[in-house]
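F.,

This is the one I mentioned.
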């Protein structure tokens, strides 16, 4: 399985996110997580400038700068695990054996044990839709009681 990433995710009037910007391995099932993360980052980056009528390419570039770290890191992890599986030349249905020192470290401390899962699920820094960017939150706050 190849891991690919577009060099540039944006042009004036165009922003690539999800699989259009970066193709992930099915390993870990994180492609959808990253696509949703891209969408949240895109919404946060473009809603304000769009409302103000001044969306620029630099606003779109923010999405790639922010999401690119997570994509690179997770693709690197996926490549490492895939390479481990290939070099071990074991049957496809067997588990990948981790070195005993790594296995002990990962499972001995809850913080360390949970880190890979949290990283795959939420990325380096979790993202949230900015309330000010959410049209429904804005329209509700402007309504008369």
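My design for it:
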């Amino acid at each position: 399985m190849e891991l690919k990433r577009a060099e540039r995710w944006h042009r004036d009037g165009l922003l690539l996110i999800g699989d259009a910007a970066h193709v992930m391995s099915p390993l870990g099932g994180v492609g959808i997580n990253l696509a949703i993360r891209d969408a949240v980052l895109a919404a946060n980056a473009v809603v304000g400038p769009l409302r103000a009528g001044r969306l620029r390419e630099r606003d779109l570039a923010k999405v790639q700068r922010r999401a690119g770290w997570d994509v690179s890191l997770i693709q690197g992890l996926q490549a490492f695990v895939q390479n481990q599986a290939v070099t071990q030349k074991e049957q496809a249905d067997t588990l990948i054996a981790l070195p005993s020192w790594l296995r002990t470290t990962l499972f001995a401390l809850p913080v360390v044990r949970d880190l890979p899962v949290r990283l795959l699920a939420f990325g380096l820094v979790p993202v949230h839709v900015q309330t000010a960017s959410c049209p429904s939150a804005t329209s509700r706050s402007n309504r008369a009681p």
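Strands lie at 4-5, 10-11, 14-15, 22-23.

Talk soon.
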